[in-house]
Design a protein that fits this description.
The chain is mainly α and 211 residues long. The chain has one domain. The chain starts with a helix and ends in a 6-residue tail after the last helix.
């Protein structure tokens, strides 16, 4: 199955395991980040629509750019990215489930995003953040969003941690072999004899003169 997912979907990973996260030193930046996070929480509370998810995601990316450790910021972004994947109707499994790579915020058109070690690292971080949020804030208005996202993350991991299912999914990005090129018909070359299509009169062949 061929896919052009990389051309039209550019999910932003919810986490980068190689970058240490520390709170911003500037108090003004921390306050601004917290305002973004607060607005994002309001968007993920109650009825969640595609527009709300997209706006929430952008706000959280801004917040974490200002303060990488803004309270609840990472967990909310993980949830927003996972929920966003449910709205990419063009990229679904045969079962109807969302593309598991998009649930993690990974672009499967990029080879490194399909690395099992990268996927496992993202899964553990996403699962840990969501489960801690579910355990710590059972009355949080965002609890349904966290719960839904946690199920999506678990289902995505079930697919990507299975070597056979992952291989089948990744086959979308394998380039098909080039079609065979037709052979050129033989042609006569000066001084190299005649082509297979040229016949020699029998009289000439036996050295006899015609007429």
């Amino acid at each position: 199955m061929k896919s052009n997912i990389g051309a039209s979907v550019s999910p932003i990973p919810p986490m980068n395991p190689s970058i240490p996260r520390r709170r911003a030193k500037d108090a003004a930046l921390r306050r601004e980040a917290e305002r973004y996070v607060s607005t994002a929480k309001d968007l993920l509370s109650g009825q969640i629509t595609e527009d709300k998810i997209e706006r929430c995601r952008h706000l959280l990316i801004k917040a974490l750019g200002l303060d990488p450790c803004a309270p609840s910021g990472q967990a909310l972004l993980v949830a927003a990215v996972a929920l966003r994947a449910t709205h990419h109707h063009r990229y679904r499994l045969p079962s109807g489930a969302p593309d598991p790579y998009l649930v993690f915020g990974l672009n499967p058109a990029v080879l490194t995003a399909r690395d099992p070690a990268v996927i496992q690292s993202y899964y553990h971080q996403a699962s840990d953040l969501l489960n801690r949020s579910l355990c710590s804030h059972p009355l949080d208005p965002c609890y349904p969003a966290f719960s839904h996202a946690a199920r999506l993350v678990a289902d995505a991991w079930a697919v990507l941690s299975d070597a056979h299912r992952k291989e089948s999914l990744d086959s979308r990005f394998e380039k098909p072999p080039p079609p065979p090129q037709p052979l050129a018909p033989p042609t006569a070359q000066p001084g190299r004899g005649t082509s297979a299509a040229t016949t020699i009169p029998s009289d000439v062949a036996h050295g006899r003169r015609a007429g």
